[in-house]
Automatic annotation (TrEMBL):
GO molecular function, one term: acyltransferase activity, transferring groups other than amino-acyl groups
Gene3D superfamilies: 3.40.630.30
Claim: Manganese is one of the keywords in the record: no
Coiled coil feature spans: none
Name of the protein this chain belongs to: Histone acetyltransferase HPA2
Residues covered by the N-acetyltransferase domain: 3-162
Superkingdom, natural source: Bacteria
One Pfam family cited in the UniProt record for this chain: Acetyltransf_1
Native organism taxonomy: Bacteria, Pseudomonadati, Pseudomonadota, Betaproteobacteria, Burkholderiales
InterPro entries: Acyl_CoA_acyltransferase, GNAT_dom
Source organism (scientific name): Collimonas arenae
Amino acid sequence: MDIHYKKIDLNGHFERALKFRLDSFVCSFGSDKEFWQEAGADGSIYRDKMEQRKDDADWFYFHVWHAGRIVGQLEFRGFSEWEKLGYVQLFYLIPEYRGIGVFDQLHRFVEDTLINVGCSGAVLAASKTNLRALKAYERLGWYRMGPNPKHEMTDFYRLDFS
């Protein structure tokens, strides 16, 4: 599938980015209850963070495009609290693009990008109840590191690049 990645255009596509982030949160935790506390009532906290980081070479915010439309979103960075490991905040695909092999392409893009900035692996936090995501991560070599002390519903997973 011919997938393209473009930096998120905050002026033209922020509402889509916020919608995707919200859907990902609901998929992970079953409700939007805590989402708006983190993102701001109108998404302004989320937008401000993206705006502050958009020109930083260690932060990556991409929309995933196919056939002229936005079908997904990636958010990740080339650093974490673990030495030489990047951190993935978000893998997201709209529902009709899930389960058809597109995720593997997104995953490869993130891995290649992190390798290019000097990372030897990556970490992410995944909801214990998002079984579909956990299955995909494990299939691609991610392994559980342990619980996330900042959020009891999530565990940390790690992938070492070979």
